[in-house]
Amino acid sequence: MRSGHNTMSGIGRLSTNGSVLLLCDMQEKFRPNIFQFTNIVSNAARLLQASRILGIPPIVTEQYPKGLGPTVPELGAEGLTAHAKTKFTMMTEEVEKEMLALGNPKQAILCGIETQACIACTTFDLLEKGIEVHIVADAVSSRSQTDRLFALSRLRQSGAFLTTTEAVLLQLVHDAKHPKFREIQKLMAQPSPDTGLLAFFSSL
User: Known catalytic residue: 121?
Assistant: First the structure.
């Protein structure tokens, strides 16, 4: 029996209805220190593009932006309000209000940094609220690959689903006849870059 509070009979089938894309703390000062930062942000940017194509609302946070800088431009989040925070969770009062205004999404697609900190705390808060969490493993990272991989293992134990960028894109359209499929297909023109997850997979 899988632990955690999962909808859709517990199998984790993603849907564009009732989903939200959470983009956590992809900021300038993290750039030199986060493992695979460029590829992580690139994957998250593809998911943000997909969310706009498919009508999935995105929410962006920034950890102490005064000290850690703004969200990096290559994420493509211009025009979105970034919620500043000091907590190690995205679920601040402001974000909770935005979630409420969205009709309390039942599924969260989660990207960003750091896996063992803000991604973990956000996941715990979401699961406690009964929201199904899909952590995009090739769109989250940490300064340490050890912390990243152990955090993914820990969050899987708590009931989060681990997935990849391309898997999310395909599950959301679910049919080559989907009217937006060709636009989504363009986001998959190049294979996702290797972000060092094979070591994690071999340990499962």
Answer: no
CB neighbour list of residue 104: distance below 8 Å, 6 or more residues apart? none
Active site residue 138: no
The answer to whether 92 and 83 are in contact (CB under 8 A) is yes
CB 105 within 8 A of CB 162: no
pLDDT band at 2 (very low <50, low <70, confident <90, very high): very low
Structure-derived torsion over alpha carbons of residues 149, 155, 161, 162, reported in degrees to the nearest 10? -10
* Catalytic residue chosen out of the listed positions 24, 106, 111, 118: 118
Q: CB–CB of 113/149 below 8 Å?
A: no
Which of 24, 25, 111, 125 is the catalytic position?
25
Calculated CA dihedral for residues 127, 129, 130, 132, nearest 10 degrees:
-50
Q: Residue 158 in contact with residue 124, Cβ under 8 Å?
A: yes
DSSP 99-155: HHHTT--SEEEEEEE-IIIIIHHHHHHHHHTT-EEEEEEEEEE-SSHHHHHHHHHHH
Tokens 């498919």 sit at which residue? Answer: 54
180 is catalytic: no
- DSSP at 160: P
Q: Using a cut of 0.85, tell me whether the model's pTM lies above it.
A: yes
Set 24, 85, 111, 125: catalytic member: 85
User: Average pLDDT, stretch 152-176?
Assistant: 95
